[in-house]
Amino acid sequence: MKSQSKARSRAGFSMTELVISAMLMGSLMLVAGLATDRAMSLFRQRRASEEVSSSASRLLQRVTNALAFARRTSLTPVPNAPQGGSTLTFNTCRGVEAGVVQWSAPITLCWEREDGELNDGLDNNGNGLVDEGQLAWIENLGLAGEKRVVWGHGLCEFLPGETFDGADEDGDGLIDEAGLSFEIQGDVLTVQLGLQGSGPDGNIMTRVVETSVLVRN
Ligand SMILES: [Ca+2]
Ligand SMILES: [Ca+2]
Ligand SMILES: [Ca+2]
User: Fold this and answer.
1) Exposed end of the chain (fewer CB within 10 Å): N or C?
2) pLDDT tens digit sequence for 56-115
3) Averaged confidence pLDDT in the chain
């Protein structure tokens, strides 16, 4: 008997060892699986966050380009603090012909409610964002030949830190600034954009970008 037991021990693992090994292997696979899920979740989260950031930057650059040759005296309404503005109409310089500066048709950049969305604190269009807006570029607003293009979606209703209460809650000198905000000081026009996106877990990500344009034409 003694020699048979020694033979089994030498020949392989006992049943207990096999069970323990299987349990250890299962635990390791579970840990590895959880780690992979966590890593993938973080990756998706980071990618979604980067997409919102890059979209905000691209949109701001487009707005900046549109304003690059804006006529200072054409800014309507003049976005003075503390009201600023979320709508701005202006003409831009198209060059000089026969010594005369040529101005564009009136261009309007504005925050407007996203299609399918209502101002009711609910996500009416089911995109994960609540009461969000879109950025519209409009030529000849309200006139014959009006042209309209939506440049961006997912604008915040108000920039972070602000609500619709007639007060400057975030203390930046502007009252109730929207997800598209204009402010002029002298000839310097400051633009702020607040963009939102819905993350993989349904969480809302918000990015605020800002730039200033010297309006001197
Ligand atoms: Ca929505
Ligand atoms: Ca809504
Ligand atoms: Ca403010």
Assistant:
1) N
2) 999 999 999 999 999 999 999 999 999 999 999 999 999 999 999 999 999 999 999 999
3) 92
Per residue in 9-68, pLDDT (tens digit) is 555 678 888 888 888 888 888 887 888 888 888 888 899 899 999 999 999 999 999 999
Residue corresponding to tokens 């990500």:
205
Residue type, position 55, single letter? S
| Ligand 2 center from residue 145 Cα (angstroms) | 31
SS3 12: coil
Residue 61 three-state SS: helix
Report the separation in Å between the CA atom of 164 and the middle of ligand 2, taken as the mean of its atom positions: 15
pTM confidence score: 0.82
Smallest-distance ligand from the CA of 177: 3
What are the angstrom distances between the C-alpha of 121 and each of 12, 128, 129, 156, 162? Answer: 68, 12, 10, 12, 15
Q: How far is the CA of 131 from the centre of ligand 2 (A)?
A: 4
Q: Which ligand is nearest to the CA of 176?
A: 3
Kindly give, in sequence order, each residue whose CB lies less than 8 Å from that of residue 193, ignoring residues fewer than 6 positions away: 56, 59, 60, 63, 135, 155, 179, 180, 181, 208, 209, 210
Side-chain-side CA neighbours of 13 within 13 Å: the count stands at: 8
Query: Angle at CA 212, nearest 5°, toward 142 and 94?
Result: 50
User: Whole-angstrom distance between the N-terminal and C-terminal Cα of the chain?
Assistant: 105
